[in-house]
Design goal:
This protein is an alpha+beta fold and about 350 residues long. The chain has helices at about 15-30, 70-75, 145-150, 160-175, 185-205, 210-230, 240-245, 250-255, 265-280, 290-295, 300-310, 315-325, 330-345; strands spanning about 5-10, 35, 45-50, 55-60, 65-70, 80-90, 90-95, 100, 105-110, 115-120, 130-135, 155. The chain has a seven-stranded antiparallel sheet with strand order 1-3-4-11-6-9-12, sandwiched between helices. Strands 2-5-10-7-8 form a five-stranded antiparallel sheet. Helix 5 (about 185-205) crosses helix 6.
Amino acid sequence: MLVEKAFSTQDVFVSDRFARWREHVLRTYVPAEVDSDHAANFAASQRILDLGGVQLWTMEHSPMTLRRTQKLIQQSDPEFYHLSLNLRGTMGLTSSDHEAEYEPYDLVLHDTSRPHLIRAITSHDEETILGTGLFIPRKLLPLPENAIDSLRVRRLSGREGIGALLAQFLTQVNRDSGSYRPDDGPRLGTVAVDLLSALFAHALEADRSLPPETHRQTLVLRIRAFVQGRLHDPQLTPPAIAAAHHISTSYLHRLFQEHGLTVSGWIRRQRLEHARRDLADPALHRTPIHLIASRWGYPQAADFSRAFRNAYGIPPKDYRRHGSASAGYSGNSLAADHTREQRHS
């Protein structure tokens, strides 16, 4: 399973719960002033999953406010972007130049380097607020800071389009964290950053004041998100991708070449990585290999077996046998074991 840190006030005496929660927020987030009208019977739980340079958090808690002041920023600032996906309750966020409220399945970005006030309150007959999101080092997002800054505290929808794709990814990884291996964490972190970047690129697309380089970057991110959502389609070809984005196939190839990639090579790598993960998942051990191959865009089993072996040095059935037995195997170690077995057979 993914590397995880967890905290719950259920493990603390009632009289100490709110004080311990404030201490926990300071350790796992940033120095902040935390207050609540429900301190006497405060309840909270938090999970943080390690996705390489990115952290995926889920938090359920009683109503509270969290204030990040300039003085606290000067004391400590990890220079993170903090993305929140509200799932239950209402979140109000105030910064020096913005103020807005966010309902369930709204996405909002704020910056640990900027003063802000978060107010989390319950709705209807609910007792707690529930949310999930990402802590992302600012340097990981490939868009210019001034472009990202224009999206700070802006309401982005998690109910449709790329926002819905990102929301589904966050909730699914949280729900299925036990089905991944620790070394899947950085790969999932890369997917999270790509999806968030694509969402920002989509939101910024209409802003023609951005420099041409930024528009190229945002287009690449949109294309990557488009591909990620259609890996199952065997007709996902460079001409089809170019047509969907109203560009020429030659320009599509140039965009990827600028990043040291080929379009077909990147698609193939994404498909094989998803298939490799499924083959190593004990929960899918009884799923026929040809179904997994088809799920990720390989309708012909022979084509999948050949591509998988070229990528990892071992047939899919042997990878599944070793990968299910030991989560510590890598593609190289599996290939080495396979070679040794052939020598002794």
